[in-house]
Amino acid sequence: MLHDRVLVRADAGEGERRSSGGIVIPATAQVGKRLSWAGVVAVGQSVRAVEVGDRVLFDPEDRGEVEVRGVAYVLLRERDLHAVAAERLEGSADATGLYL
């Protein structure tokens, strides 16, 4: 990986969903602009806030897709990430592990 790039593998949650009330929402239903979660697979040497294994929140409209050995990945810039969920703050009592 080069510079400020982050390689992620998107969660496979693009299909049918269930609301908190139990209503099934089909994959074809129109929804507003929705951000997606993904797991970080690799990071460039200039990336400061993200490590391999973290989960990141990004806009699926602003992404570059790449396929490596038959597996689809998404290539993002660090500045295009909206949030990072990490478990690095284990010692802190009030830490949620979510950086916005």
Automatic annotation (TrEMBL):
Q: Is Chaperone a UniProt keyword of this protein? A: yes
* Record keywords: Chaperone
Q: Which Pfam families does the UniProt record give?
A: Cpn10
Has the keyword Thylakoid been applied to this entry?
no
| Signal peptide coordinates | none
Q: What domain of life is recorded for the organism?
A: Bacteria
* Annotated family: Belongs to the GroES chaperonin family.
Q: PANTHER family recorded for this chain?
A: 10 KDA HEAT SHOCK PROTEIN, CO-CHAPERONIN GROES
Protein name per its UniProtKB record: GroES family chaperonin
